[in-house]
Amino acid sequence: MSITVRIMEGPDVGAIGSLWQTLELQSEASFFQSWSWIGNWLQSMPGSIRHQLIVAERSQEVVGLGILVPQKVVRHVVFRSNALFLNEAGLDEYDFIVEHNGFLLKSGLESEVLEACLRYLVQERKGWDELFLSGIRTDNLLAGAPLLGRLGLHHRELRSSASPYVDLEMVRLSGGDYLSTISSNRRAQIRRSIRKYELAGALTLRVAATLNEAMDIFEDLKELHQSHWTARGEGGSFARTRWEQFHRNLINARFSHGEIQLARVSAGGKTIGCLYNVVRNGWVSVVQTGFRYEEDPDFRPGYVGHYLAIDYNLGRGHRAYDFLAGESRYKTSLSNKSHQLTWAVLQQTRSKFIAEDALRQLKRSGELFVRTLAGARLSRPRTNTNYKEISLDVLDG
Length: 397
What we know:
The chain has 397 residues and is an alpha+beta fold. It has helices at 13-24, 35-44, 110-123, 145-150, 168-173, 184-198, 211-231, 241-254, 301-315, 329-334, 351-379, 387-396, and strands spanning 4-9, 52-58, 61-75, 79-86, 104-105, 130-137, 154-167, 203-207, 260-267, 270-280, 283-291, 320-322, 337-347.
């Protein structure tokens, strides 16, 4: 049966929610593709930001959905494009976390539906030049060259990042002792830190049981997080009032559904850290943290806090503890697996993009020439050395 695709211009949030929640039950969606997240994001955007809903149907059944936000993009002053952003506004102030992103697709039909959506956009939908895709897993079909090639779309990666996580099933299969699965050095650091904290009293992790308790922990998390970042001369996440309000709304709306996990880590009754996680189908994602740092480096509130949270979620039967994007040392040292996420743009064939690519290549060539020239000077070639010998000196450098 054929798949038909259409665009709904600016539908109200309620209409989108009805379609989205029905399809979500039939899809392998991350929390950031769920209606819990998407609905809250749509409600947080001002009416001045237009959005479109792309809808794929087979035999009158919805099998694919995505939110597209049109924006005017200007690069290098002269290159202008009509861009579409998938499940994001394309403006930092209205985007809060865009990871594990993608079209919402019915399980078992992912490749067919995705191709139908992109084919529709390329062949039937005029007026756009490029489609921005943020936080797409590299094993997502959107990152696949064969599909994009068939549609005449050029894929340009803007950046990529590991998304380290703890596969809790793997820990269970190895005996259930998480600490035994990480490096001996990191294990010793965590145990030493635990002993030092326990000198002040019992070390505990308490997960909020009520919404009021959750909001109390969120307030303490904010204070700890901001204290740390402002001391470093940076704003911190809570410097963005819209970021804070978005998450307050999310906690209020989804806590009772078991999708929000706010935890307090204490030693002798004193809070040493707070963690804010979201949960979907046993996948726990770390959204934000706040820790109380001491001058003594043996106190490691972050490592201890995450260890206790991992152990808690292991006991709850959850599947994974996801640190989300970023290759910080603590993330890689505490995880046992990783996804690779990519931020990319799909471009239609346009002369301006060909010119932009040419200028980009020219810039890279110029930078390479400068580095090569600097390397040649540093190598201090002997007098009467021929060109070939200089080149080898540069390559060795």
